Fold these 3 entries.
Entry 1:
Amino acid sequence: MTKKKNKTYNSPLIDSILEDDSNSTEYDLVKNRMLLASRIKKQMSKLGLTNLDLAKELGRSPSLISKWLSGTHNFTANTLFEIQRVIKIDLINNCEEKLVKPRYELNISFSKEDETISVSPNYMTQNNLNKLPVKSRYEC
Amino acid sequence: MKCSLVKLDQLSGDMATIYSLFIEEDQTTLFENFLNENKTKYFKEVKDIVTRLKVIGNDTGAREQFFKLNEGNIGDGVCALYDTDKSNLRLYCVRFGMALVVVGGGGFKPKSIRALQDDPKLTYENLFLREFVKELMIKMKDKDIRINYSMDPEEFDGDLEFNINI
């Protein structure tokens, strides 16, 4: 076998298209669409689901499913909800990014009279708290 | 027509190697011809196609779902990068598994056509790739070309020059 070096080719035209100003955001948009489509298809394969199976489950045409999986489709949230119910993975939260628990900044004031700690309104409203009772040091 | 397989460096990455055919008499690749022919009228689509190929090379690999299969002879791997009904352009490729793609030419896809044979430009580009694959299969059978699986991702190795006649 004649061995020849693998020729690499750099096209100035491809460079000019890829270096277009808006391209980095567009690249990420395209990448995310294609990664999402890959995730869906991978999970379908895990579950042994064909495009036809998914189409039947969702009451859609097989050609629409192919389009969804092609990496060109911009999903609505509703469609993702429908799909994830069938394939049983979370697509909406796109679990590559872990959710960060919200932190609360507390304004704490201590009332000596009734020995309670008051916290900031936001925290109280979300957690249905009024006042947190604190044991008196004499009771401890 | 003398041509050679060349690796498109700007599109290839960790997930797939993207090739095109360099045409000696034109001194450009089939893919560049496609870009030049369509970038003025359909720049947005051309940009989307280039971006998708780069994502295939760098992030996802050449997953079957990103292509419309069976655009050539049975089993030869000739396919098209997925285009929707609203797309104006069709780009023919040859897919060798998840990690090797040869990007060919293509063109405007008239909405009125029902079959490939209805459009002479698309017919030509499609046939060119079919002939390329025939030649490639002969070279692989004769061990003049092989797929180097020790590379990550895979690459073609050997005599990468062809003479395509259609």
Note: The two ends of chain B are 9 Å apart (CA to CA).
Entry 2:
Amino acid sequence: MDTHLPSPHPSPGGRGRSPVGTLARRAATLFVVHGILIAGAVFILLPFVWMLITSIKSPAEIFAVDFSLWPKHFNAVENYGFALQKVPLLRFAANGVIVCAGILLIQLLVAIPCAYALAKLRFPGRTALFALVLMGLCIPIQVPALPLYMGLAQVGLLNTYFAIMMPFFSSVFAIFLFRQFFRSYPDEIIHAARLDGMSEFEIVWLIVVPSAWPAIAAFSVFSIVAHWNDLYWPLIVISDTHLATPPLGMMFFADAETGSNYGALTAAATVLTAPLVVAFLIARRRFIEGITMTGIK
Amino acid sequence: MARVELKSISKSFGGVPVLSGIELDVADGEFLTLVGASGCGKSTLIRIIAGLEPQSSGSVLINGAPVDHLRPHERQVAMVFQSYALYPHMRVFANIGLPLMMSRLNLFERLPIIRMLSARRRRVMAEIESEVRAVTKQLQIDALLERRPSQLSGGQRQRVALGRAMVRHPAAFLMDEPLSNLDAKLRVHMRTELAELHDRLGTTFIYVTHDQVEAMTMSDRVAMMDNGTILQIGRPGDLYMRPANLKVAQFIGTPAINLLPAKVSSAGSVELFGAELPIRARRPAGSAMTLGIRPEAITLAPLGTSRPGMHLLPGRLRRSENLGPEHMLHIDLTSPASGTIICSVAGDHEPLTSDSRGLALLFMPSACHVFDVEGHRIDDVEAASAAAAPSSDPHARAFGATLCPLLPKAGEPCAPCGGPAARTS
């Protein structure tokens, strides 16, 4: 992000400041600004760095009194091997992929037409519906958790992928985000599409969505991060280890005999965090575009 | 080919009326322009004709049949938008061919992947391609078929939008300010091209613009709208020569018509700055009036000149603008008159502009447009001039017995009379 720095071209004959003084001032500003940014980055990155280092240390070194950033003996093979052998880590990761992809797909299928209707179609009750969407944003998952659980238990669907995904199929946040995005879509193009004979569904999927990729990418990152990391809901509906999502799997893993093997634990955590970090790095530019775009409008 | 009729169309947005009781009959093959300031309801009206906006009451008829229940694409009209409204992610070919694909391919033949299975699709697509090529050749954009809209200039986008409208062979073209996003030079060029396209296709055109020059130069008829109603419909020359309403007189013509306060004298004629004009007012004595004189209807002469039949106002030159072929003179009226008048004279009028003693502004009373306090035209003006000089010559009809003061020689065409050598501003 741009930070506001003094102009690189000091005005000639300005306020009598010498070129050296101007340079010093600029250097000081740069130093302070970057100092703050670096401090923030260190604060956020330190837990990750610690996790990575711990995952390659030997148990003795982890519990050693003196703190070191770099291990004396590398124990990576043992730690990662142990984690991968004892725990179905890849299975957890695969579960995470299935759940996140399923949730995201249905969320997009539901939220995009809803958002289009709220943004571009005129019908009675539109304002009231949008108000309901906004109110929906205020309800945390903990509130409907009990009735959802009872309902799933009644139909015998506990311990299924469907049970993990179902509460998140309709995302009010997605509807809100896409509605804001679609509102800025030019009406004239939609009118032209209607005159060309397209149905409203075709307009949504063939005309509007191709221009909405930044918003879709931004929302996808939100959705995937939230559901990859979600522990609360899988913990309620899943007791079968084979269906565990990454955080739930980590919890099962920590509970078992490996509870105090921090090297192996952090190795497992590294394996399970890596896909998200990689995904974010790939979608980073789109993600930032999406955020700034919806922030301005 | 279609005749488009509007029967008492009204529209209100949340209780606020934007159109009230619009009656319009556009003949088959006619070029009709809806002109008016922004917010007068002209764009809403054209969207109602297209079916993009439902009217609150009234009926739209195309070729005599009501189309109110039909969806936009079923009405057989094509529209060109101000922003061109091209599909940004599609290439030019797809943009132009889309209306044909929508109407000739069924749902399965349009679905991704599944469409590969259809043999009929390949045949239909070959037809569509040849039609798209024919249209793009006509518009001289056949080299651009593989480009995306973002890679095109404004004028090229405009042509693609036109192509998308033409390829359907619609019953009528609706155009919503299609030239206003172009730069001035290209606008003048496209104006001619559109008019020629209309001549070639012979299809009904309904054209919306806020630019009176576009309205005057391209149309068979012009409908001037204001505040949700049509003030006047007529040939461009009619609106200029016989504005039915003060607002029409003000809107049509550049520079704008000069307006002077007048009133009805005790004798019942129009009184301007204490002097009576030979125009019967047909309103009660003492009522306020507005007198309009076109800038080119005024002849300038040294102070003290008088000419038979012409009315004189004294004035002093404040400022002169040289436009090349003509001078635009800003003249302050002097006692007993007051106010400012803009007067246009041919470019060789140099000697007058340096006269510091003052000028005589001479005009024929028959060249005046008189409006009552509500802005309605008082029709006696035309009657008086017709009685004075019955003639078939348009200049004589407009300006009484004298020739149009703009013209160096008699009989040459000019803008106010709708001649082919129309001046553009």
Note: Residues 80-296 of chain A form a domain with the MetI-like fold fold (CATH 1.10.3720.10).
Entry 3:
Amino acid sequence: MKLATFKGGVHPDDGKRFTKDKPVQTYLPKGELVFPLSQHIGAPAKPVVQKKDTVLMGQLIAEAGGFVSANIVSSVSGTVKAIEPRVTVSGAKVDAIVIENDGNYTPIEGLGQYRDYTKMSKQEILDAVKEAGIVGLGGAGFPTHVKLMPKNPDAIDHIIVNGAECEPYLTSDYRMMIENPEQIVSGLKVMLQLFDNAKGVIAVEANKPMGIQNLQELVKNEPRIEVVPLKTKYPQGAERNLIYAVTGRKINSTKLPADAGCIVDNIDTVIAIHMAVCEKTPLMRRIVTVTGNGINEPKNYNVKIGTSFAELAEASGGLKEGVKKVIAGGPMMGMSIPSLDVPIVKTSSALTCLMQDDVERFEETACIRCGRCVQVCPSNIVPQKLIEAAMKYDTTAFAALGGMECCECGSCTFACPARRPLTQAFRQMRQAVMAERRKKG
Amino acid sequence: MSITAIILTALVVGAVGIIVGFLLVTAGEKFKVEVDEKEVAIRAELPGNNCGGCGFPGCDGLAAAIAKGEAPANGCPVGGAPVAAKISALLGEEASDVKRMVAFVRCSGDCDTALDKCNYVGIKDCRAAAVVPGRGAKQCVKGCKGFGSCVTACKFDAIHVVNGIAVVDSTKCVGCGKCAATCPNGLIVMIPEDAQYVVQCNSQDKGKAVKEACSAGCIGCTLCTKQCEFGAITMNGNVAVIDQEKCQACGKCAEKCPSKIIRRRENKQE
């Protein structure tokens, strides 16, 4: 059978061997928990608690600070220790609520109460998702309730559950397909309730046969849901590539998935929707893969949001001697962090610890015009031309050459035999172009 | 060769020359572009570096704007007072007071004082380093990255990276402000050329964090604000700022500063 896919892409070592057979363990935090107010796309949340307040597990501690913004909920019970700037994975200091965990996990009233979603109205479901503070858990962190309110809901004909997990090393979504496939299907059914004309598609890369089998078994009698296996290729899980693979529709940077009649949500996000709507549990946890050659015991964890990465590394037997690079996220899209003392936020999918051999650097040389970057680019742009514009800091030429279509997936940098730092240059230029456009208004 | 052929050729070429010349003269008269004489005169006074520091497209752009009254007579930061005086005279205005401004880098975290938090292996450019999580190798995210984006931007060879931080040569600096616009950390500010004392740090972190990152950083102790008799020093968050208008250059702040980051400007020593 020919598998659905897109043009371009690369095949890095998937590294999933470390953790794909490790069941998800629940990790309970010991120390303080840090909740940065900006852990989603959009306006930062506004704190609704004060220093020394007592909070319960599941209590709202910061509310959405605008239309595109999300609530933040305490994942433990305890006392608010401080509201102060703390370093996050991006390296910047962001205002954060620090909560001292009392270790009792006293839940707020009504937490975990069963609700029958079929008896809820569309507005009730949307409100439940909004209250729960759910954002895209795949990495971008776009508030989910905003995504679920497109301008024209009747035009939505595909709800795609993104189970590609194309990022190397990550196995959190795969473990969920094995351990909690019922919740995935339930979450998708909740979303289908919102869109009458839509059909549900669970798209999974073919390197997860167990996951595909489990889900197919569950949706056998669901006429509105189908499971689509995808070709294993990076970046198969990027929104635009996924939409193209499933529906054959193309969108560019100026359009939203809703313009192509699609809504795309990550596996873990769909589970969070199920928990928020059916179990009245806001977003308090996420699945994090701790993996790589540089950690003693690679594992998958169910972690309270706000836990420090350092605690998680310790629980995995600590970092190995001589670890060279530690990345929050996967090796392609993740951010390398200089210190483990940063909190896990809603979008932290993994902690990848790499040794010298994994990150061995080679000297950068001149472009030999082999065209590999063009072959692998999923956005159909010409990285070799773009880098010339970027080196001259020519924002006009960069935008004219289609630089804004770049999704910063890193495929060109991965494929370049001359080891040119393409993706970094493009990120810099994209930000410069966006800043210029904001200035012009 | 017959003589008639030579004469004929000379006549034809001569006639064509006269006709074309006549056409050119009429065209020149008919399509003449009206040039403001004032604009030409102003343009002649401007330095002609085309640096763009005034915010107009080159010296021609500024000259046109001044002639139309869209820019002030002292619009050229490079020319300073002498040029402004000449242009004011041309416009028949009273010469306005112009202070020559120079660039100043608000960081003293060089290779000896500022600590690194990681190895940075990406593009050797400050603007590129600024998009990477952690914003480059230095522990202080606000500090000078030392890759010299400002050096490339300067057309007057007035800024150089010395021991890991950018240093302005005030004698060469013309005050166009290109470096200030380039610095991704916004570290470079324009100060009056005669400014004596400056705060050479821009870190908004609290004292403890600053000390952990750099031995030459403002720890926000506010000692200087208490020392100053003229009320020239205020705190902008966790970093001291000197108001050069009020500063009387007594030097008490520099004496008291525990991190020695309030300094007398080196270029002003002579």
Note: The first strand of chain B starts at residue 101 and ends at 105.
